[in-house]
Design brief:
- The protein is α+β, with helices and mostly antiparallel strands.
- It is 36% helix and 22% strand.
- The protein has 2 domains: 12-92, no CATH class; 102-216, TATA-Binding Protein, CATH 3.30.310.
- The chain contains 8 helices and 9 strands.
- A hairpin with a 5-residue loop joins strand 6 (147-148) and strand 7.
- The longest helix has 22 residues, at 195-216.
């Protein structure tokens, strides 16, 4: 899969591969997928079933063997971009343990070529909106279920997928310099999603944070 080529990730690039990704999973062992992804597989009749897991803390299902993602509560199908993200996750996941070490986008495969663009539409965008309002940042992060981490002046980890955590760190600024925000990933990230999928996750997290921040400011 090619890395992102635009200043912002284009979700339509994912939709072109949905059919292909589903076909590639047709003969996958559901129990192996369960072990690799951290999802829970619930078998049904006629060799069917579903995987259960959380996407951004929202209960989600992925049917087997047709691999269609739905909200667990409403059973409504997820958007094309989320369908693609989950298919990439189930295709890429290999069960590698999380490292507990946070890495930057530039440390992902091919990430250094697009790190500046990624920072532009993630950390820099958050910084322009929040600036030095660390309290507002913390409240927004906590309202989205972020778990405080001992990194930088303030940082929160979010479980985008069972084995794909995303962290946003804040280095507090002062009167002369604004705060610096950066999105980080677990050191095992490349074992669970391709780099451009992490570009989507990073952008999604920033927009979620800004939505909550503006709603309460």
């Amino acid at each position: 899969m090619k890395p992102p080529h635009t200043a912002k990730p284009d979700p339509t690039n994912f939709t072109r591969r949905i059919v292909e990704l589903r076909q590639g999973l047709l003969h996958a062992d559901p129990r192996q997928l369960e072990r690799y992804t951290g999802a829970t597989f619930i078998p049904r009749e006629n060799q069917q079933g579903e995987f259960q897991f959380n996407l951004w803390n929202s209960p989600t299902t992925l049917s087997y063997p047709d691999f269609i993602a739905r909200q667990a509560s409403s059973q409504g199908e997820l958007s094309a971009v989320n369908q693609a993200l989950l298919l990439y996750y189930f295709t890429t996941a290999d069960g590698t343990p999380l490292s507990g070490r946070w890495i930057s986008f530039s440390e992902l495969p091919n990430g250094r070529f697009y790190a500046q663009a990624f920072q532009g539409y993630t950390g820099n965008e958050l910084g322009r909106a929040i600036a030095n309002d660390q309290s507002g940042f913390e409240k927004a992060a906590e309202s989205l279920g972020g778990v405080h981490q001992p990194l930088a002046d303030a940082s929160y980890a979010f479980q985008a997928l069972p084995r794909a955590p995303v962290l946003i760190a804040c280095w507090k600024g002062d009167e002369d310099f604004p705060s610096n925000y950066q999105v980080l990933f677990d050191g095992s990230a490349s074992h669970y999603l391709p780099t451009d999928a992490y570009a989507i996750l990073g952008s999604t997290l920033i927009h979620r944070l800004l939505g909550v921040y503006h709603a309460h400011s």
